[in-house]
Amino acid sequence: MAFERINQKDWYKVLGAKPSDSPAELKRQYQKLALLYHPDKQEADVPAGEAEERVQRFIEIDQAWKILGNEETKKEYDLQRREDNLTKEGPLHAQIYLEEMSWNEDEQLYTLSCRCGGNYSVFKSETKEVSLVCCDTCSLVVEILQ
Ligand SMILES: [Zn+2]
């Protein structure tokens, strides 16, 4: 098993999913994307360059699912991710796109779990001025990109 290679990509991102998503959610996300990018489902008039990109995307989605769709490899990958995160230096935890955060419609709030178990949160109304958000539990900071 070539586990040393599986950490090259953020497979959750490839699937448009989050590490906290359930296996059922991951599967649903995989099926949606696989259908969207499946080579057999492409329009005939898509430009060659774009068709090629879509094939690449499909291969990635498929790889992501091979890792995240299997309980054993998913566990291994999650462990690697966690270790990677813990060895990152500096107070800046990560850069993250707003749309990668969890959206809470009722509170009009974007949230993200910190590796310490705490949360980053930013109200929608603040997102125009705020680009750095502190964890509510530890001293880590994320930079929000939009
Ligand atoms: Zn924290």
UniProtKB/TrEMBL annotation:
InterPro entries: DnaJ_domain (IPR001623), DPH_MB_dom (IPR007872), DPH_MB_sf (IPR036671), J_dom_sf (IPR036869). The keyword Hydrolase does not apply. Its main location: cytoplasm. PROSITE patterns: DNAJ_2 (PS50076), DPH_MB (PS51074). GO terms for molecular function: ATPase activator activity; ferrous iron binding. Keywords: Cytoplasm, Cytoskeleton, Electron transport, Iron, Metal-binding, Transport, Zinc. It comes from the Eukaryota. Residues 92-146 form the DPH-type MB domain. It holds the Pfam family DnaJ. GO terms for cellular component: cytoskeleton. Pathway: Protein modification; peptidyl-diphthamide biosynthesis. Monomer and homooligomer. Iron binding promotes oligomerization. PANTHER family: DNAJ HOMOLOG SUBFAMILY C MEMBER 24. Belongs to the DPH4 family. This is DnaJ homolog subfamily C member 24. It comes from Cyanistes caeruleus. The lineage of its organism: Eukaryota, Metazoa, Chordata, Craniata, Vertebrata. The gene is DNAJC24.
